[in-house]
Amino acid sequence: MSQAKLGDTVTVHYTGRLEDGTVFDSSVGRDPLQFSIGGGNIIPGFEQAVIGMIPGDSKTETIPASNAYGDHNADMVVVVDRQQIPPDMPVSIGQQLQVQQPGGEVIPVMITEISEAEITLDANHPLAGETLIFDIELVAIG
To answer: Residue 83, Cβ neighbours under 10 Å: how many?
Structure first.
């Protein structure tokens, strides 16, 4: 059997969890994930973990933040005046919003703090700064 390599389209089952054991995503109970190794659609550490596996192989891989969603970037956290949010719009911690930049680009942000006067918005990926642990099973190549 051939090993998965750069450029291959692979099909995998996976479960991703944080260091405290919290599962944040899994393909168990649904269709497996299919992607091209090197296509840039999957975090680099996950792609690298699949390289060299053969169909039927399973492994657990620990991926540091630097090879996943990156470190948490304080420059991507902004505090806005509560008056900038429409008064009839309910807000809550953990809520995701879409913010339109002056150039028209829309970026997703999460509300992380709320006070009477201000709301803190974080544009980091929710898993930024986290070490991720994946259980990976290579189902097929091609």
So the answer is: 10
